[in-house]
Write a structure and sequence with these properties.
381 residues, alpha/beta, Aspartate Aminotransferase, domain 2, 2 domains, 7-stranded mixed beta sheet, 3-stranded antiparallel beta sheet, 12 helices, globular, binds 4'-deoxy-4'-aminopyridoxal-5'-phosphate, binds glutamine
């Protein structure tokens, strides 16, 4: 049976492709972003208690009340307004589902959506499933700043939404106050929704994350998405959430109830414990990622790549052109086969693959010894 036409253009995700190749060649996998250590015990124990306590039936579709309340308590101060767990918070199966529910529940066929590229691979697929017309604004090295004129040219009266991912995968940019002010001004001017994917919200280095939802007039038009995976080193648990004013939450929930209806109960109870983590949990997460960032970035520089030191996420982009390969795919193939290190060719994150051909994405979501070994292997370059 052929795959349905709506999915044919997208093939197999680059993360699956590279992880499989890494396994075949016994390469150190710095491609797909996931920590190579386990998540915290206090979260796992909370989920285990829920399993043992016999809460085995469907929870409420928007998520268990305890988790919606915990999300409201945690994000109210961060987003600068009181959040109502009944009407403004929806628990989803990872941020992946929150993205899909947002597109399918709020975007009509023919609506325009502005994407900032390089973009996370699910965005154009969700847009296509919703029948949206996408317009891309490209971030370019070395600083990957958002160009206000390009953005203004992409946002029109047909625009329904703009998707902002900050901290940004794959560039590691944390959009600053000026960039967010430009986005907010255009959203207000053209009555546009901002979909803010903040899954790397606690991975910022020497900078705090400015939140779009806090800017004047943005609380009423911003959907803030996040999940458990990155912040708590639990990428396999797939608990996410969408925080949005009641009018927008209605659309998200309309889709969510038919995509998954709900998210497994035990991991929702685990998530309650996660969201109540003490402040030092986040300080330690940041400082340990910052050390690993510096270890990898310094190592990439030593082997002759040109990395762009990221302010956020657990990814670093680097320019590989000093080595004379034709494009990012051929460079990544060589890395896996000849050096034993896997990385992501980022051209898949652009509407025109040529824009990513000179770059390669590495993840530092690995322990220090693994990163050191990877750098040693890369010196074979
Ligand atoms: N958005 C971005 C930018 C991501 O990098 C990822 C995941 N890796 C996701 C969303 C998906 O998050 P989740 O695993 O919670 O579905
Ligand atoms: N978000 C992770 C990354 O960018 C991968 C997620 C996935 O495999 N779908 O590497």
């Amino acid at each position: 049976m052929p795959v349905a036409k709506r999915f044919q253009p997208f093939g197999v995700t680059i993360f699956t492709e590279i992880t499989n190749l890494a396994q075949q060649h016994d390469a150190i996998n710095l491609g797909q972003g996931f920590p190579n250590w386990d998540g915290p015990d206090f979260i796992k124990q909370a989920a285990a208690r829920s399993l043992e306590g016999g809460r085995d039936q469907y929870p409420a579709s928007p998520g268990i009340r305890e988790l919606r309340e915990a999300i409201a308590r945690r994000y109210g101060p961060l987003l600068g307004r009181d959040l109502d767990p009944d009407t403004e918070i929806t628990v989803t199966t990872g941020c992946t589902e929150a993205l899909a529910a947002t597109f399918l529940g709020l975007i009509d066929p023919g609506d325009e959506v502005v994407l900032i590229e390089p973009f996370y691979d699910a965005y154009p697929v969700d847009a296509a499933l919703a029948g949206a017309v996408t317009r891309a604004v490209t971030l370019r090295p070395p600083d990957f700043r958002l160009d206000p004129e390009m953005l203004a040219a992409a946002v029109t009266d047909q625009t329904k939404a703009i998707l902002v991912n900050t901290p940004h995968n794959p560039t590691g940019r944390v959009f600053d106050a000026d960039e967010l002010a430009t986005i907010a001004r255009l959203c207000r001017q053209h009555d546009v929704i901002a979909i803010c994917d903040e899954v790397y919200e606690w991975m910022t280095y020497d900078t705090e994350l400015p939140r779009l939802a806090r800017l004047p007039g943005m609380g009423e038009r911003t959907i803030t998405l996040s999940s458990l995976g990155k912040t708590y080193s639990l990428t396999g648990w797939k608990v996410g959430w969408a925080i949005a004013p009641p009018g927008l939450t209605g659309g998200i929930r309309a889709a969510h109830q038919f995509l998954t209806f709900t998210t497994p109960t035990p991991v929702q109870y685990g998530a309650v414990a996660a969201l109540e983590a003490p402040a030092h949990y986040y300080t330690e997460l940041r400082s340990s990622y910052q050390e690993r960032r510096d270890l990898l970035v310094d190592g990439l520089e030593r082997v002759g790549l040109r990395p762009f030191r990221p302010d956020g996420t657990y990814f670093v982009m680097a320019d590989h052109t000093a080595f004379g390969f034709e494009d990012d795919r051929s460079f990544c193939r060589h890395l896996i086969e000849k050096c034993g290190v896997a990385a992501i060719p980022p051209s898949v994150f652009y509407s025109d693959p040529v824009d990513g051909a000179s770059l390669v994405r590495f993840s530092f979501s690995r322990d220090a010894a693994t990163l050191q070994e990877a750098v040693e292997r890369l010196s074979r370059l």
